[in-house]
Amino acid sequence: MIICLGPVGSGKTLLLRSLKNSGSIDNTTTAVSTTGTDIFSIKIDEKKYQIREIGGCMAPLWPKYFGGVKKVIYVVDVSNLCQISAACVLLYTVLVNPVLKNVPILLVLTKMDVSYRQMRNEALLMLQMKRLQKELRQKIEITEYSAITEEGRKEILNWITKKVA
Ligand SMILES: Nc1nc2c(ncn2[C@@H]2O[C@H](COP(=O)(O)OP(=O)(O)O)[C@@H](O)[C@H]2O)c(=O)[nH]1
Ligand SMILES: [Mg+2]
């Protein structure tokens, strides 16, 4: 099982929906923020991957779902600078959990369609990625995404299918 975490409204549901069905996001898609958890079954090259989205408002309960997790996708909304430092603290509390000490992490900087290119560096700075990468033993990869343009979709799918060393 892969889990998808991130603050409320960071774009988890839209990301997983667009990974599941490319082109499924349109103006008629209503966004209801996820309260419990939602499981998305994503088929890549005839193989099925289960990804569980855990609602951002459930952050205190996240660790309940860490058992048996193989990979973590962490979604951060780069268009919302106010949320980024909170996202960083949350990410840190996730990564120090011993259950996840060998689990690869994909940090998805999403809503790139809203932000300017240089937002990436600014966001990484605010997330204190350098420090995180130094202090933590997990392998953290960083990628950019937009559920609107679906730019970056392939990179995420590749990461999902990659064998865990
Ligand atoms: N422009 C833009 N808006 C997005 C993107 N991803 C999500 N959103 C919007 O952000 C809001 C929250 O998205 P949602 O996927 O429900 O967030 P969740 O709470 O993390 O599941 C919704 O209004 C989405 O339409 C994106 O890549 N680009
Ligand atoms: Mg959601």
From TrEMBL:
Task: List positions binding Mg(2+).
Answer: T13, T34
Give any GO molecular function from the UniProt entry: metal ion binding
| Binding-site list for GTP | G6, P7, V8, G9, S10, G11, K12, T13, G56
* Domain of life per record: Eukaryota
Q: Which UniProt keywords apply?
A: GTP-binding, Magnesium, Metal-binding, Nucleotide-binding
Q: Which PANTHER family match?
A: ADP-RIBOSYLATION FACTOR-LIKE PROTEIN 16
Q: What is this protein called?
A: ADP-ribosylation factor-like protein 16
Q: Which organism is it from?
A: Psylliodes chrysocephalus
